[in-house]
Amino acid sequence: MRLATWNVNSIRTRVARTVEFAVREDIDVLAMQEVKCKPEQFPYAPFEDAGYHVEVHGLNQWNGVAIASREPMTDVRTGFDGMPGFAKATATAPVHIGTDAPLEARALGAIVNGVRVWSLYVPNGRSLADPHLDYKLQWLDALRAATAAEIAATPDLPLALVGDFNIIPFDHDNGDPDIVVGRSTHVSPEERAAFFALESAGVQDVVRPILPEGYTYWDYQRLKFPRNEGIRIDFVLGSAAFADKVSGAAIHRNERKGEQPSDHVPVVVDLDLGAAEEDDDLPMIFA
């Protein structure tokens, strides 16, 4: 199985190049983030014409996640247990974060060919002083707890958390001089701790051992891409049962080029779903 994750930054704007990428790169499962549409607005036809089934979770023109798969999907879930929502402050009430607050379309899970895939769009955080940062941290803690419970219940089911995590785990993942520890979200100690806490739930970054370097996002402004002032915020985190099946990985940097690119690029992993074979020589692939 070839699994990809891509923050497409509006699927209606970029459907042609998204489907073309999936077909050209022989993607079996494509997890998408920031589709920015309701299910009834999603451009299903190009995916279906290319042989994909599609599941979409979107509530408005913001956020939104989707999964396209060549195989049928089962046990489709919109949101994970304990996922908090966010209610803006009003004249009569402060900001409210919790499971009883309005939920955003940020998580979609499905089982495909015996693999549990979660397409995730983690809240941005906005700024260090913004209540949205607390929302982000609570959201990640709920994800950690839900993932730990799911892995404990079905440890032999390969599970992957994939998507845009809006966190730069290490200093060498940051090539953007405008993002500074102590002044910016994505690099705060609290956000990094929340990201690494996911390891305690039983998942690990399955791409980094193969590709230790490489950015996945470049801002549209100030020639960030030509200057290679990017950041690494898109990940595939897999359970032990998933990680054991990973045979290769790629970051498709060239998808940031061309007409109307997303500001993110796809991250791809190859899985060997047949008999497990030991292979200490995993390929380093730069596409």
Structure explained in plain terms:
The protein is α+β, with helices and mostly antiparallel strands. The chain has a single domain (2-286), classed as 4-Layer Sandwich (Deoxyribonuclease I, Chain A), CATH 3.60.10.10. 20% of the residues lie in helices and 25% in strands. It has five helices and 15 strands. The protein has helices spanning 11-24, 44-49, 131-153, 189-197, 240-243; strands at residues 2-7, 29-33, 53-57, 65-69, 74-78, 85-87, 96-98, 107-112, 115-121, 159-164, 203-205, 234-239, 246-251, 267-271, 285-286. Strands 3-4-2-1-14-13-15 form a seven-stranded mixed sheet. Strands 5-8-9-10-12-11 form a six-stranded mixed sheet. A hairpin with an 8-residue loop joins strand 6 (85-87) and strand 7.
Order of helices and strands: EHEHEEEEEEEHEHEEHEEE
Described by the principal axes of the CA atoms, the overall outline is globular
Q: Give Rg in angstroms.
A: 18 Å
Indicate the structural class. alpha+beta
What is the number of strand segments? 15
Distance from first to last alpha carbon:
18 Å
The CATH class designation is: Alpha Beta
Q: Characterize the largest beta sheet: strand count, sense, and whether it forms a barrel.
A: 7 strands, mixed
Give the strand order, joined by hyphens, for the main sheet: 3-4-2-1-14-13-15
Total domains: 1
Strand content: 25-35%
Helical segment tally? 5
Low-pLDDT stretches: 276-286
Q: Which fold name fills CATH's third level, the topology?
A: Deoxyribonuclease I, Chain A
Percent range of helical residues: 10-25%
**Level-2 CATH architecture:** 4-Layer Sandwich
Q: What's the CATH H-level superfamily name? A: Endonuclease/exonuclease/phosphatase
